[in-house]
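Sat 14:20. Reprocessing the chain from the morning session after the first attempt stalled halfway. Input below, unchanged.
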Amino acid sequence: MSKEKGIYTVGITGASGAMYGVCLTQELLRQSYKVHLVITEAGWQVFKEELQLDTSNREAVLDELFSTHREQLYYHPLHDYAAPIASGSYQNNGMFIIPCSMGTLSGIAHGASGNLLERTADVMLKEKRPLLLVPRETPLHQIHLENMLKIAKVGGTIVPAMPGYYQQPKTIEDLVRFVVGKVLDSAGIEHQLFTRWGEDR
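Finished this time. Tokens:
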């Protein structure tokens, strides 16, 4: 295995689009990053509904989805406050919440730290480390927009799940890879997930 390149946290919530979080985690692991993974209870429900996975054995699901680089993945239950990512002293390169529900976004915007995912996001903001949120909700009302603005004002980055079509996508996977690629772009992480504008097709 190649040398570890860094450490990122990935949060997956109950918003539609679980495949975004899975794809991002797989790409980070493929690139030899260590990944701390937090999945909300609603997130596990979406795994069952959207990905058609038997979530009664969660460790088996993680083994199935991330079998190639399982040793680089550290899964934490939602209320495991003893996890290293709950502390600002832990050298975490950044955090992605993908997809990000409006409930989780609200908790982060108001500093609630009601679970490990929200607490880790709060740590990213207070330590001035990258926090990237991928909201997956439509339409948006004023409270949603104000919460996004609050987070953006204190250093978070909002990357809505809005796929581009100029790369001529042929499959759902193409659309997912585009969004994940844009998220990685925002974090300054190189990838080859989609064809960029101006590149040969």
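The domain at 7-186 is CATH 3.40.50.1950 (Rossmann fold).
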